[in-house]
């Protein structure tokens, strides 16, 4: 609930922090507790961060992730650091009886000491402190915690002289562009997370807080800028409280009215914007003569809105028994038993693995059983009919093709995950269509000479299910506040952020040419997959990791795929974000996360055009016996090509008309089109 900004005497109100403790943090705490802390309950230094670019509607978050214990490490790009103290108790009773007021008073006095000594002027980030009191039940993987962000209070609050307005309303277009250019050139981030601002119609300047007297000689108009993680249009965030106390202690007797700019930097559909930043004026009390630490507040309320701790149950993603059960019970079908298929099989090592394609599958099964005698593996010597590879030579070849299709359908229906690990593009088409029609998860891996791509295929949404785009993406009902992210595209986020699993494309969704015979008129080295040594093992391991992340996700194959480079907008998951596809270039050591959306007019999505049980093998025989044009006719690609060519002709004619309509003078040479 959001309270009104103004009461009777126009006091400024602040949006408190909402703790966002990611699953990675609890994983790290578990390891630290078992291996390092053990029974040691002494306070430990940790770190968190907050971000001033969240989308509208999100709470003011302070995030702790797997890197929280690396206190000397860098914070994520465009994020503000916060130093914290962890108090991890050995028992639940100790957690309940810990003196919370004493912990808060201790942290508040430390903040007040940095203000009195002037250390906060040199590095104002030390004003951003937090406390985390925890108890970890490592038998049940239940974690109890209470978060506190200490804030020093003014006895009678802060009087508001001018209500907050957006930067767009306050600054002229010229001033806004000056300020925006400073942000684009990283001048602001190089200064501090709290800094002084001086602006005129012609220029905008910034300076450190410690230079206030020299930067503002007359002290009549002083503007302080703070990185603000709040998304509310009329409220500053919690960190501003300690900054105002710092200014009131150092210069309270000299300052009349203070202007505050809460700087917010959001990226929307690839474009950065700061116009939603807010600016207002306050009258500061005088604390220059005060020697006693002010009263402090900061303990977070629980989800019910009362003062109390929170809890999170991570047994689903941390209990080894549950994790192993999910992996062990997964039935995997590996299509392809070459270098890539063997790499996947050796890394996978689940209980049930079926390998298909050629006699190599039988040899691979024998080797698997020697490596892991407990594996339930079976090999199948079969061929996969492919587009552009005719099967109509005789009744015998037609019967064999029919048998291969039926066997492939049966194998796919009996397994949970299908790995596509073949050499050619066209050999992946039929398994893609069959698995998609049966809503089976496909993990696809393909090698080049010095590149590879690993991806999952999108799953068709069940008819009787509600839209996945509106289902909350939380790991459990009582998880931390970070589980408030949803599968919908968050307002203010990138257009292609957090794409639901049923909207993801397949291996063929980026192609406008149907698969055909790719081995015709090619030499032996061109027909075989020749790649750098080790590339198959990297791609195979990544394919297995992708599968494990998907089956551990609460949404399974419908898991949201995030393509945003803004890690704060990624949905929370037990093993981190689940990408759609990952490509790698060896020569440049470049790992790139990509995505592509489902498109019904492409050849891999024929399950939306026909059903195999209705059209049967006769339809597939036309696909196998015809060139790629047959598939293109069926999916609408032929029409797309014709429309594209017509558009190019219209564009050419338009350019010609424009050139002859606006003809230059006769003595001017016109370059050829």
From TrEMBL:
Lineage, top-rank taxon, reads Eukaryota
Q: Which stretches are tagged as biased composition: Basic and acidic residues?
A: 461-471
InterPro entries given for it? Answer: Atg7_N, Atg7_N_1, Atg7_N_2, ThiF/MoeB/HesA, ThiF_NAD_FAD-bd, Ubiquitin-activating_enz
Ranges for region Disordered: 460-484
Segments forming a coiled coil = 391-418
Q: Where is the Ubiquitin-like modifier-activating enzyme Atg7 N-terminal domain?
A: 12-318
Q: Which Gene3D superfamilies match?
A: NAD(P)-binding Rossmann-like Domain, Ubiquitin-like modifier-activating enzyme ATG7 C-terminal domain, Ubiquitin-like modifier-activating enzyme ATG7 N-terminal domain
Q: Which GO biological process categories is it annotated with?
A: autophagosome assembly; autophagy of mitochondrion; cellular response to nitrogen starvation; piecemeal microautophagy of the nucleus; protein modification by small protein conjugation; protein transport
Q: Which Pfam families would you find in this protein's record?
A: ATG7_N (PF16420), ThiF (PF00899)
Compositional bias, Low complexity, is annotated for: 474-484
What are the entry keywords? Answer: Autophagy, Coiled coil, Protein transport, Transport, Ubl conjugation pathway
- Protein transport found in the keyword field: yes
* The THIF-type NAD/FAD binding fold domain, residue ranges: 358-556
MF annotations from Gene Ontology = Atg12 activating enzyme activity; Atg8 activating enzyme activity
Any single Gene Ontology cellular-component annotation: phagophore assembly site
Provide the family line: Belongs to the ATG7 family.
Which protein is depicted? Answer: Ubiquitin-like modifier-activating enzyme ATG7
Organism, by scientific name, is Cyprinus carpio (Common carp)
